[in-house]
Amino acid sequence: MTGDDPLEESASGEPRTDGGTEAGADDVALDPWGSSTVSDYRKLFEEFGIEEFDEILEEVPNPHYLMRRGVIFGHRDYRPVAEALAKGEPAAVLSGFMPTGDPHIGHKLVFDEIIWHQQQGAEAFALIADLEANAARGMSWEEIDEHARSYLLSLLALGFDPEKGTLYRQSENRELQDLAFDLGAEANFSEFQAIYGFDGETSVSHMQSVVTQMADICYPQLEEPIPTVIPVGPDQDPHVRLARDLAERMRYFKVSEAYASFELDADERALVAEWYDRLDPAEFDDDDLRCVHLAETLAETPLSELETDAATLDSVLTKLEEAGMEPLRPRVRFFDRRATDEAFEALIDAIEGEKRVYEGHVDAFDVERAEAEELALEVEVANGGYGFRPPSSIYHRFMTGLTGGKMSSSIAASHISLLDDPEEGYEKVKSATTGGRETAEEQRELGGKADECPVYELYAYLLAGDDDEFAKRVYDECVGGERLCGGCKEQAAELMREFLAEHQEKRAEVEELLEETGIELESSRRR
Asked: What GO molecular functions are on record for this protein (predicted)?
């Protein structure tokens, strides 16, 4: 989650794909501390369950230009956040920055996403991941302090409002560290090994920094459970997935739908639900639909008509047959996952209508699933639990290096620091690789390759600002052969020079504001 640096080089060995399988040449590897190149974003939808952002774009009020232009390309469960923003209800945004170098144009993407959410009404959190920088990168506290100050100045210069938001350092936030301890009780080494490739050589501090990041992600919900989004690059998705898992494990109750005394997984439940709705209890001897009746029906129906696989069918048949004459009745099931005795009793009292109480769960027959989820959350919070909602995330594309290939912090010409002298920024853009043709004549005839051009990315990600018409005009003129690379780079270089000069002037203006925020600018761990 933190760091989110498209310039970082590999520092943790072989990255792992989801589930702990070592990444092969054709796999998409997501390693929060390693290479951030993703060659095929479509595979992220297929392999990791990231959803396409375009599918919910119309539901987002006043979408940011990064959303409109597809730079923010994916999300995980962002709809609750979009709905809260649209209705003016509480929501939060959080992202963090690992202070291992100067802030650069890759970080600006995340700065912009935090600031936009804050402007839309979300409570905004920005943190300095200094514990991670020290544990995972070996940075000294003196170096961390220097870079942390620079990140914060750029964030404030770009428009973050510290009076309406929260800034903190991991190392100085005791509430965060206490939360990390609680979350750590629900995590184990085998998970870290599978997700991150940790082994016997991994330091305990590095592992602890992961738990701290999980606490960062949940931190906006300490006061109350609210929809929360974490803007990151796709390399940080392993952190988001683990945080969502831990947030659920911390909940007092798990809510599911059931039809009898046995449990069903999602595929099994879909099959039972469909055929429960198809069958008429009046067709059976005692006007009751029983487990054995559905088992007989499914067994007599060709697999091709059931729209499921053989393994799912076999499992459902076994469960139905073992339940025998037990009536099939839809119900919502509340599992006691880690509730106190008082909380479990309060839940029982809060459930209205018909219910059956068992040692470890309660079945409710007159409550809808969504209503049950909210009831479980309310009871948990009222009885001392966190009640975390699963954190959401949005994902932005990585920027191509100005010299081609991936951006690299070790190759100065490949990226632009927000601290670069404006003239240096100008020269870097002027020297950048383009998606142009071999000759001007060929460019006019065939058009340029804007989709493969680092310079066009600068327009789309940064230089065109909120002006979609300008960004589109640059694109259309390029691919139409009207725009040649020399003039295009000159215009981009001028705009970059102006941006850097203006940004650095604003950084100087917010120096005093940074001092007033109250965030610790010098670590107490310095010696």
From this structure: ATP binding; tryptophan-tRNA ligase activity
